Amino acid sequence: MIVATVDEHLQPHSRVVLLKEFNVKGFVFYTNFEGHKAQQMAQNNRVSLTFFWPSLERQVRVLGVAEKISETISISYFNTRPIESQLGAWASPQSQLIRSKDFLEKQFQYYKQKFGDNVPKPPHWGGYVVVPSSFEFWQGRPNRLHDRLLFTHTGNDWKIERLAP
Ligand SMILES: Cc1cc2nc3c(=O)[nH]c(=O)nc-3n(C[C@H](O)[C@H](O)[C@H](O)COP(=O)(O)O)c2cc1C
């Protein structure tokens, strides 16, 4: 899915992340808490998500707020990941400028030596849940007469409205 955040200059930033789970609370993804998106969410936790299925001509847009999930859940998921991904989470100072690719390789080898077969979750890595406040479901139709259905959360219910394409 594409996650968009906004920085302190009101500049939007968007990037792809893996939607790991969705549950009754919202949409869960995992990342580095020191990268750009995490810094932006720490200042302003309003985000948007976009999903696109070209072959179905479908788009889903979500607005909501991002909240960190519990450390316990992040640890359980981290422990299921392949060891190379676990080491990668330690090796990469996400979003920072690095001198060369070699720097990453060396970091990787360093943490491999350090942790062996038991890699703990880095304190700077974990999950966010995006709690939705609105959804727009877009369905492509002939003659550009596409459907756009807007669901807005109103207390315990969802208001449903139609937007012009
Ligand atoms: C298919 C795909 C999946 C990705 N999944 C993740 C992810 O789950 N978490 C993540 O932090 N970055 C993921 N990335 C990398 C991000 O797009 C982005 O480069 C990175 O998170 C740094 O973004 P930032 O500097 O805005 O924080 C993925 C990229 C692609 C293309």
Helix content: 25-40%
Spans of at least 5 consecutive residues with low confidence: none
Strand content: 35-45%
The beta-strand count equals: 9
What is the CATH first-level class name?
A: Mainly Beta
CATH H-level superfamily title:
Electron Transport, Fmn-binding Protein, Chain A
Count structural domains. 1
- The topology string of helices and strands comes to EEEEHEEHHHEEE
Q: Which structural class fits the helix and strand makeup?
A: alpha+beta
What's the CATH architecture? Answer: Roll
* Ligands: flavin mononucleotide
The CATH topology, please? Pnp Oxidase, Chain A
Q: Features of this protein?
A:
165 residues; alpha+beta; Pnp Oxidase, Chain A; 9-stranded antiparallel beta sheet; 25% helix; binds flavin mononucleotide
